[in-house]
Amino acid sequence: MKWQQLPLGSLQTNCYIVENPDRSCLIFDPGGEAKKLISLLQSRSLKPLAILLTHAHFDHIGAVEEIRETYHIPVYVHKQEEKWLLDPALNGSQFFSVIEPIKVNPADQLIQNEGKMKIADFTMTVFHTPGHSPGSVSYYFENEGVVIAGDALFQGSIGRTDLPGGNQSMLLKSIHDKLLTLPEETYVLPGHGGVTTIAAEMDSNPFLNGFL
């Protein structure tokens, strides 16, 4: 399995493409610039199977509809944010004058429980990691030592919690209980910025050192 980071949209949100040797792939958080993403997929002859969202803030969902319509694939989001896709007030897009309000049709699959998830030959573990938003989830690929953490944990920082539904103490608990229990060599693929590891954040993240 291989993965690729592709910053997209007005906030350069990290979209991740996870692929298998047979060229099938999963798309995580297509935040915008759908044509750029489609061009990359076509240039590499990739075959998307699904769109998975770490959460439903506007900068993570801007290209969802065009990608779904192009490839006729399902969209996954946590149940607590199923209404966010359709509501610019909830997903935050109505508060940014530089973008059009974003409305996405309902998700095809609602994530309701933590645990193993299998899509074709892809197997991952879903962790509910609320705090940045109520329905934030992280996707852990154990065999590959990679966790796609959305806006929960960043290199040297954590997700903001001043948006609707945000809660810093809940976020810190999510990080501590769900992410920092992973093997220290696990790569953390965040929603913004560079890739880091669990070990690096345990050692030097100023938001976590006082919590451990």
TrEMBL record:
CDD domains given in the database record: metallo-hydrolase-like_MBL-fold
Q: Quick check: keyword Nuclease in the entry? A: no
Q: Which residues form the Metallo-beta-lactamase domain?
A: 12-192
By its UniProt entry, which Pfam families does this protein fall under?
Answer: Lactamase_B
Q: Which terms are listed as keywords in the entry? A: Hydrolase, Metal-binding, Zinc
> What cofactor does its activity depend on?
Zn(2+)
PANTHER family under this entry? HYDROXYACYLGLUTATHIONE HYDROLASE GLOC
Question: What name does the UniProt record give this protein?
Answer: MBL fold metallo-hydrolase
Q: What is the lineage of its organism?
A: Bacteria, Bacillati, Bacillota, Bacilli, Bacillales
